[in-house]
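Please study the protein below:
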Amino acid sequence: MVVIAASLLAAGCSSFSNRGEVDKPYIEAANTYQFSFENVALTDSSTVVTAIVRQRPGSAIFFDSAIAIVAGGKEYPVISIDNLGLGESYVMPDSAVARFTMRFPAIPATVKSIDFTENVADGWQLWGVQLDTNYVYETQIPAKLMQIEATEVFPEAEIACDTTTVNIHLLNYRPAMGSKLSYYVNNLSGQVSDLPQLDIDEKGNAIFKKLLVGPEEFALLGIGDVRLKGSVLMLPGETIDMDCDCRYSGNFNMQVRSHGKIEPVIEYFGSNGRLDRISRAAAKAGDYGLDLYSGKFGDYHMTGDQYVDYVMAAYNAKLDSINALDAAPAVKDYKTLSLQANVVQAVAMARNILNHNYMASHGMWNAPVPADSVPVEISPERAREVAAMFDFNNPELLYVYGTTRPSFLARADVWNNAGVDVTMFNALAAYQKAYTSDSSAQLDEASLESLKASAYPAFAQAAEARWQEAEKLLNSSAAKLVEPTPEVADDKIFEEIIRPYKGKVVVVDLWNTWCGPCRAAIAANEPLKSSELASDDIVWIYIADESSPVSTYLTMIPDIKGHHFRVKDEQIRKIREHFNVDGIPYYIIVDREGNAEGRPDLRNHNLYVSTILGKL
């Protein structure tokens, strides 16, 4: 709500003026989900902001004297914060909610939006705090990226290997948000999240390219702490335009002041990918799948015959509903194929699903299910009966399901034991094994050879390409950055790694490539090495383990200044036990005398800097 000064109303002023109060202003974007604006009061003498913080009781927050609002491209530094001195810390109360009145200089009356910045690395920032009551919060994604034609048909499916390009356009992007885009990929081998970040240009554009075999899902995570919502289903050989609205982060931020209440919901992304648009249209057409893990699917008392009868009846009922849909042919095909993939999963995972029903029925989720409580066993005859319902080697099954639950299609024991032709499922299992082999830096030659001889050689092509990329990195200059792990007992690894640097302050960072908070912290801390923490007396050591895939690890470490070690599972376990590591990133500070102390509290950026400086 905006209250306009009475003098302006009396004057009959028709031009825009922000003078008055803006209650719960719209916020376009933010990098924090703990701090927000509840009210902005604007006069000719000052700008007063009522800010709200929601954070864990007992945790400390800190407002630096460098904080400012930005209006019309000009910074207006904070004058005061009621009941809190600038530069002082504040301990959050038991309510986990605190409000602060912040005073800034007056801004021009014509300004329609302001930004907020702490002006420190990793500080809270808000962008596009709206002062204009005529601001319309609506979808900016073009309709053509969200719709399909009524006559659209499902794309012809084939398992082929080709390069796909996604041109990403970030709407309402500001360069101050950052220049690196984080994302993950769901492919036929599972989810891959530890991928090199994409570069964002000053206009908010980024490009993703990848060799695909079958469909994959590309999903955005964010720009640093700026959350994004956006994903696209890709097919081999496609060039796709994808729009993603950064205002999703603002929507999330506005929930801070409404305590979880969702602000107006709009579409935040869209693409012209053919399969992607069909899948979104299908999602809007309703749910016609089997709700396998609701706890209500089947009955744990069922025998194998009873369960198969139940699955087949559920399939036929859902199929009748899909056929009766008033929808584009592509949507009905998508729904049917999704349902068929559900049936494959329901039978292949029968015991797991009925175990879930047992746990739901008994209200017990942490205790094991007694083995004799779920009698289901699928006979070969009944498995063959299910397999006769539709084509198990139809590659379209991968198009609708393979990007989200590929492991279920690859679990082919029940079908193989029944003599069912599941050539595609077996090839998928071999592909998954060969594709993921670069995590251990050893190619699974047997899986690769079986793929080459199969009916799906494209799987072999994709797995081999991934390995060649990893092998190239293993022979690159990046591999030389990884220092040899000392050949000592596992429980002596840490002290041997730090031993050469006695007399200096050593900062040890336990991390992994798949850890999002680790990557974000490294990105925030890296610039400090050439500014506040620039010193020859500080040694930076980064310890990852074998859960970090070699190819991703070697791609990332050239941008991280320091000494790098990639240790074995038992070695990292000993380090974690010694320092009682509660998660990563985890920091260990070693003073000049060689005394090491675990410091998980250094995840607080301000404390990180002051603590290291205090050791010099």
